[in-house]
Amino acid sequence: MATVSFSKIVKSFGQTEVIHGADIDIEDGEFVVFVGPSGCGKSTLLRMLAGLESVSDGEIRIGETVVTELAPKDRDVAMVFQNYALYPHMTVADNIGFPLKMTGVQKTARTKNVNEVAKLLGLDGLLDRYPRELSGGQRQRVAMGRAIIRRPSVFLFDEPLSNLDAALRVQMRREIKLLHKRLESTMIFVTHDQVEAMTMADRIVVLRGGRVEQIGTPDEIYRQPANTFVASFIGAPP
Ligand code: ADP
Ligand code: MG
């Protein structure tokens, strides 16, 4: 079961505490959006889950496994970043297949997997191209393909659509939701965009200044905001 639970999570950078004891429980297969103003701690929470940052206190579990002390590679998660982070000198096929290559999967098996993932993301036909020969949306799909290829239980998205123009952003929201349906995996999606949160989330986690202000469905958050911050941040008509 790919439940995710943040329990009493504290994070400090040097003397500065930036996450002040966050409790967040995510269900298996849920699509949860972390939303809040810039600097509220969204990326830091994801990075601690992925193992890119240590926790200062508290515990993170994926299913029954406490992952807080595990190396990033031993955590059953994959992360998609805003800036794609594709390898410019590698083809689409090699970019998508890279995580398998790193774990020693043979070429034949790799190609089969890459083809499946490319099909899922509508990238068949582009496998021999290089990142510079792709549109922004196509690059984002390659980044997602690289995340999907190892079939992790939990997918993390850190503002993956911020660099795209408005029309493409709306299209990619739909594609990510479709992917969620097909893969039936747990997804955590970070954004500072309230509309994105309201339209995509099963449940929303509203953050401010390193604290969880409210967790609820879009409807609950909209109709019954926990405080004036949530009301003004989310309540503005979309
Ligand atoms: P968000 O993703 O919501 O914009 P972040 O998680 O990136 O916010 O940052 C939360 C807080 O932690 C901010 O005050 C930020 O300046 C601080 N912070 C993040 N990473 C570091 C770091 N490596 N060193 C020092 N401070 C950091
Ligand atoms: Mg961030």
TrEMBL record:
Q: Does Nucleotide-binding count among this protein's keywords? A: yes
> Is-annotated flag, keyword Nucleotidyltransferase?
no
- ABC transporter domain location: 4-234
The residue ranges crossing the membrane are none
Q: Which UniProt keywords apply?
A: ATP-binding, Nucleotide-binding, Transport
Q: Molecular function (GO) terms listed?
A: ATP binding
What is stated as this protein's family in its record? Belongs to the ABC transporter superfamily.
This protein's name: ABC transporter ATP-binding protein
Q: Which residues of the full protein are shown?
A: 1 to 238 of 371
